[in-house]
Each structure stands twice: as C-alpha cells, then as structure tokens.
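Whether sequence alone determines local backbone shape is best considered at the level of individual chains. Part of our work consisted of pairing the sequence of a single chain with a tokenised description of its backbone. This step matters because it turns folding into a mapping between discrete strings. For completeness, the protein is quoted in full, as a sequence line and a line of structure tokens:

_____
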Amino acid sequence: MKPIQGTDVEGADTSGVPMRARVRALLAAGAAALALPALPTPAHAAARAGTLSVGAGETYVLDTTTRLSALTIAEGGTLAVPDGYSLTLTVDAVETGSAITPTLATSTTLAPGAYEGDIVLTVAERTTASFANVTFSLRQALYVGASGVVTTRSALSAVTGGQVTDSGASGVRVVSTGEAFDGVYVAEGGSYDLRNSRFAFTGNGRCDFVGDGAAVVGTGQGTSLVLDGVTVENVGVVRTGVVAADGCALLVKNSRIRCLNGVLPSDYVPAGGANMLVVPWRLGISGNVRTVNLLGANTTATYLSSCVESETWGAFSTDSTSNSRATAINCRIANLGDEGYATFADGAIDERLLGCEIDAGTYATIIGASNGTVTYGDSTAEVVAALNSELSLGLSDAELAALPVRGSRIDSRGFGVMWHGAGTLDIGGATALTTRHTAFLVKAVRATITVDGSQGAGVSAENGVLLQLMETDNPGSINGVYTEPTGDPVRDDTFDVTQVHSADTTASFTAIALRGDFFNARRSGQNLALTFDGSTVEGVLSASVSRHAVDSISSAEYAELGQVTNTVQPVVNNGVLVTLTGGSRWAVTGTSYLSVLTLDADSTVTGPDGGAVTMTVDGTPTEPAPGRTYSGAITLSVG
C-alpha cells in the first residue's frame, strides 16, 4: 500500500510509514499521540498548544490538524479554515460541535462552547456534492476513493476500534453528536467492504439527496460498497442511514439500520428539492428522516437478511432514479411509528421485495413517477441465484445455500400500495398482503397490477375495498389546498368506456380467492379493466363517485388524503370492464355498474352464496350467460 506523506501534530516526520500501520495506529484506543497528516501551511500558522481560546468577535484560522486538551469558542467567535478545506471537531473520539448555521446553510461551523478532553481539530480537504443546483460541503470520518482511504479528506479521529485498510474496515465505531457529518463516504470508483461496525449519530443532517449527514454513502459510477454485520442507529432530521447514488453498486447483508426523527429548526419552512427536510405532506404522511435511500441513474442497492426501520416518513426509499434496481431479500422493513411508508419506488426503478416482512404505518409501498416496477415475491433459490449473477453480488455458494426460502408477509396499518405516478405491481409466490385500509389505491394514473395466487399469494383489506381508482387529491404544492369536486361529471363523448386505453388502470388476478370491492371513481376519462382467471371474487365491482370526509384538505388535514367513501353510480367517463376466464366466479354482493362484462364458457356471475343476480344492459333485462360479452350501460343487482 502507498505510504502516507505528512507530519503529525507533534512535528515528528511520518513520511514513508505504510498506510496499514499508520491507520491502525490512528485507531488504537488510548494512543498517546495522534498521527494525522498535515496540510500545506498557508499564511496563518496553526496553534499547536494544548489549549485554544477564540474570543468574541475573533476569527481564528486553523490551517493544520491540531490536538488539544481544551477548546473554548466564545459567542461571536469563529474558528475557521482556509478556503477549500473543512473543519471537524472530535472530543474523546466523538464528532461533536458542528452546527448548520443558519438553517439551510450548506456547510457547518463549530458552535460556541467549552470543550474538554482528547480534542482533535481535523482540517481536511473539502468534499462537495450537488443536488438541484445547490452544492454542499461534506465532512466524513473516512473518505474512500479509487486508491483507498484518502486521509487528507478524512476525520480519522472519529473512527475508533477495529481495523481500517484501503480495501475495507472491520470492527470500527463512529459516533457523532454534531450535525451534517458522515461516517464512511465511498466515491470515485472506490471499492470498500465495511464489516461488523457500528454507527450512532444524533443530530440533524442537511440533505439526504447527497447523503449530507448519512452514516454510510456510496456514490458514483464504478463505486462498490459492501456492508456486512453493520449497525446504524441514527436520530435526526434527514440523518439517513445508508445512501447509494449515481451508479454505485451497494450490497448490505446481516445488518440493522434504524433512523428516528429529529427536531426541526424552529425557523424551517417546508420546501422541496435540496431544502426538503420533511416528507411532502401531500403523500398523507409526516416525518423528517428516511432510513435508506437509492438515487440517480444506474444505481443498484441490494439488502439481504437485514433490518431497515424508520420512525415515520420512509424506511426503504428510492428517489429521482433512472435505470436503477433496489432489492430486498429476507429483510424486515418497518415503520416504528403510526405512519410512513415501508418502501418507495420513484422514477425508472425495478424494486423487488422477496421473502420480506413488511410492517408499514401508512403505505406498504408508494409508486411514484416514470413507470417504476415493484415485485412482491418469494426468496426462492432460483430467483436469488439469478439476482446474484445479474447484480454481481458476489454471494458465495455457501451463502446462497444457507439462505432460507420465504414468502413475503406485508402488513399495513393503512393502505397497501398507493400510486401517485404510473407504475407496475407484480405479486406472486406465497405473498400475503394484509391492509387496514384499501389494498390498491390509484390516484388518477395508470396502474398495472398482476396478482398470481397459484402458489398461495393473497390480498385482503379490512375496510373491504381491494382497489380504489380515484381523482388525485394531491393539491400540487406545499401551500396548496385540495378541494372536493362538486356537481356531476359531464360525459365526454370522445372517450370510449368500453375499450382499454394505454392510460387505463388494469388489474389481473389468477388462481386466487378475493373478497372485497373494486371502485372506479374517476370523473374524467380513465377506465378500470379487471381480469379474473381461475379465481373467485366476492364483492362490488362498479363505477362510483367518491368523497372525502371533509370538503378541503390542507397540510393540517394531511391524514385525510386517500380516505374516501364510495357511492356506486352508472358509468360516465369511468368505465369498468370485467373479464372472467378459466372457470372464474363473481359473487355480486351489491349493485354494480359496468361498461363491459365478458364471461368465458366456464365462468359465471351469481349473487351471494350462489344465489340469483339480475342484470340489465342499456335498460334491457339480460341473463349473464357463459361464453358471452356484454357491452353498454350494465347494471347488476341482487335481491
């Protein structure tokens, strides 16, 4: 390994010392001296005394990493570093004192106060990252580039225990009580293995789109990062656990990552983009930290046999993605609080949840924009082996053989899957989706749903609604207010309610028994096409009008979003097209209004418990006979 050139704080020459020996020395608990590389000395010389005091109105420029026993910064005093550098304070190996001042600043300063103990002030080359035209100055305990650990960008005094090399770290611990400090940051095509290590961060982060304040970040095309046996316990606003971005390949296994909400700055005003410190209320949830996040183009993040938990907002998140893949195998993904989403699929993402246990506060999954695909399924040996090859995970034969085969169990104390952008959901294997509210909530976008129950998959909703297609209740802006439509919808004669269009929502169910209702409450042209193959469905399948419990919804009433009741009514611009094949049976439990009904030769429509059902087509009484297709204003009712 390459030697580290430099001089420690006592002035002893350390040039030529191999990195492995140097880094081990840095991590030795209770070492008498801390060997940190010096920066080139600018005009202002750094203090090397045992104590340092910065008075009110004074700016003290520190140009080299310095060790102290006491540091005092008075109110109005500033401890600064030259341009292009960052400053990190550790006391007894804990990063502390850093503050985002003022709110939404893009770098940190040291807070006034008296610090005592084993103090190290690290002057490091600044790391920058940008999102939405805002550039942030990042600090981290370990910066890893293409050639390994870059000590001139690292605050090594924040890393204790274990062993650190250019290729990986094992048994280390990083603790932060300051703000906007990262643990391990891997970039520039670097490759790093992080094992049996622990991160405990308390204090706010700044921007989770770039990982400013995250425990572990991997970013950049060609960057690869493996976490094995890692524990992350963070508390703070956007104090994310793990971030993979912009082409990084991430594998997390046998790890536990938990993030809890922090305290927002008192003057923070909710905003979007680079200043988004809280979840947009328009999703119907609250919270200020996402636990893990995948971002950007060509990024892959795979979680295996791990636990990912958030308090609210989101546990397993993707955002602003393109051609990326997020995978969880045999994982627990949970919201510990009363609300939040377990997973989010945003952008052109392929998200697979295989053999997972999900405990969601509000949504099991939210599907965002750009035609993302979400799969709930089993962690079969064949599927996992294929992913191991496709994603170059590097799992050994022994690891693959030891992985138990599990079905996914997905429980939501709210909704199942919510679409606020077009996307696809595939459910198979032995997946069990159980929700308190509506299982599939589609807000005026195209949803493509496929449920294969041939291996035991099932869907149930305590409120009795399996699928709700509705107008969007998203007001569109942070300060917007949703207002319930009034009056009856006006028929659009150019829209065909008897055909399936590219923007329609379609749902196909195979070899499954379903009990619950399906409603299309769209006012403007969008159809709902339902296909049942070898299945039974007991419920109301109908066009409807939906209403919230309140007439307007602002940020104060965010919990009302998605909560609607339905009144069935004849089709206007909201066709319902039902197809029964493979011997399927629909037991109609209440008046249902359709635009098309197709029965193959072996399929039937009955009333509850096999009783009679009455059907009219354009007002004409008609017997629903097998092998026929009916089109028009269709009404089915039971006595």
Observations:
- The CA atoms of residues 450 and 524 lie 24 Å apart.
- Residues 381-390 form the longest helix (10 residues).
